[in-house]
Design goal:
By secondary structure, the protein is of the alpha+beta class. The chain contains 15 helices and 19 strands. The chain has three domains: about 100 residues, Uridine Diphospho-n-acetylenolpyruvylglucosamine Reductase, domain 2; about 120 residues, 2-Layer Sandwich (Uridine Diphospho-n-acetylenolpyruvylglucosamine Reductase, domain 3); about 210 residues, Vanillyl-alcohol Oxidase, Chain A, domain 3 (3-Layer(aba) Sandwich), CATH 3.40.462.20. The N terminus is likely disordered.
Length: about 475
């Protein structure tokens, strides 16, 4: 595919693009190409025919026009953290936005305008100077734009909803090469679509978010108990998350304890039941919110403490290093039955992948209070996300075996789920999974895709309408 598409673009056409763009335009073998195509999931092997390292919206307009004129699919690389590798268009045109990392915070209006190459850590760092934040993810090196356009979730989701529930406007270059501003007032249909399915509609060049007061010092970190107590801990987790104030977010993971100094030597490599916690309640309410977790007692390790919000946001970075191989299956839960919890324990006990993470993320709260038609993201029924996160080092091999194990295990968990999160889909998932991500919003999205991208230029993603191409 790469050879065929690359051969279709005459060298003089690429040279003309270089003359138009202020940013570098690189092809395989050029200096900077390897850096521009380096992404987080080391299992993805895709080679764009051309990469435009954009310096601003004008470069994006030129790159989109070039791709349209030469029939090349377009992808966008921001943080490059998507598990399916959607940042790279194999044999196509990749627009690298990673140099655009400006953040402007207006503390008076409580808004932040963010460039599309920003990582979560960039935005958190600037907004927290003013004691403000918006719900982003929970790993500091994830790209803001990609996360947002698929919906976006994090520790603050329980309080403030999906990330797109806090998106006020966006500038986006659509397939016709037009730079449009989308908001509730301007291009409202486009704004509705990009709030959950934005990767299908264009290249975002600016995002403006609503911010909320979040004290720079919060209470959080990691705590874990022996796997032998997993049934007890799971039952407690269900109760804790069902009754918790929205200021408390807790993820539960069945994992093998890492070989780190904070883990007692005898527990390193052993199965544990762990919580990742972020509590943004004030000091007076914090003890009450945390009491049910503290009451579980006798942890293997306990790293819960008062610390900067930005530190909690980066706490899990080292658990998913760049360049390792990743393969996931995930879905939304509206309840956690005893049968579901027992199945999760059985899968964890059988898992042959040493660095796998098996667990649930609690997201219930503000997102459930909006209409299912408020943005394409939908999934307003979601209370938890459950997932099988396969991770291994490239030198360990076993790609095919590990993927097969995850798929087989997922067949046992999927019946408990309803819908799924588009940003967590892997490259091999079918159209039925994409449809399930959007539910009743899917048909409207397909119609808007036909309006804004009739030739499916933006198809290097979890694509709404592959039949258009």
């Amino acid at each position: 595919m790469t050879t065929t598409l690359a051969a279709a673009v005459a060298p003089e056409a690429v040279e003309e693009l270089r003359l138009c763009c202020r940013g570098a335009v690189v092809q395989p073998g050029d200096p900077g190409y390897d850096d521009a195509t380096l992404i987080w999931n080391g299992m993805i092997d895709r080679r764009p025919a051309v990469v435009v390292r954009a310096t601003g919206a004008a470069d994006v307009v030129d790159a989109v026009g070039f791709a349209r004129d030469h029939g090349l699919p377009v992808s966008v690389r921001g943080g490059g953290h998507n598990v399916a590798g959607t940042a790279l268009a194999d044999g196509g045109a990749t627009i690298d936005m990673s140099a655009l990392r400006g953040v402007h915070v207006d503390p008076e209006t409580r808004t932040a305008t963010v460039q599309p190459g920003c990582l979560l850590g960039d935005v958190d760092r600037e907004t927290q100077l003013h004691g403000l934040a918006t719900p982003l993810g929970f790993m500091s090196d994830v790209g803001v734009a990609g996360l947002t356009l698929g919906g976006g979730l994090g520790y603050l989701t329980r309080r403030f909803g999906w990330t797109v529930d806090n998106l006020l406007e966006a500038d986006i270059v659509t397939a016709d090469g037009e730079l449009r501003r989308a908001s509730h007032e301007q291009e409202p249909d486009l704004f509705w679509a990009i709030r959950g399915a934005g990767h299908n509609f264009g290249v975002v060049t600016s995002l403006t978010f609503r911010l909320h007061p979040v004290d720079p010092m919060v209470y959080g970190g990691l705590i874990a108990w022996p796997f032998e107590r997993a049934a007890e801990i799971q039952a407690a987790y269900r109760d804790i998350t069902t009754n918790a104030p929205r200021e408390l977010a807790a993820w539960m993971m069945l994992i093998r304890a890492p070989e780190e100094p904070f883990v007692p030597e005898e527990w390193q490599g052993e199965l544990v039941c762990a919580f990742a916690v972020c509590c943004t309640a004030d000091a007076e309410a914090r003890d009450e919110a945390m009491a049910p977790i503290r009451d579980l007692g006798a942890p293997v390790f306990d790293l819960l403490e008062e610390q900067p919000y930005t530190q909690v946001q980066s706490y899990l970075d080292d658990t998913e290093p760049k360049g390792d191989h990743y393969y996931w299956k995930t879905g939304f839960l509206s309840e956690q039955t005893n049968e579901f919890q027992a199945t999760l324990r059985e899968i964890a006990a059988e898992c042959p992948i040493p660095h796998a993470q098996i667990g649930t993320l609690h997201v219930a709260g503000a997102l459930n209070e909006r209409s299912g038609e408020d943005g394409a993201v939908g999934n307003r029924h979601a209370r938890w996300i459950c997932g099988l996160i396969g991770a291994w080092e490239p030198r360990d091999g076993g790609d095919a075996e590990n993927q097969a194990w995850i798929r087989d295990a997922w067949e046992r968990l999927e019946p408990f789920t309803s819908g799924n999160y588009i940003n967590f889909q892997t490259a091999d998932e079918g159209q039925d999974r994409i449809r399930a991500s959007y539910g009743e919003n899917y048909e409207r999205l397909v119609e808007l895709k036909r309006r804004y991208d009739p030739d499916n230029l933006f198809r290097s993603n979890r694509n709404l309408a592959p039949g258009l191409a």
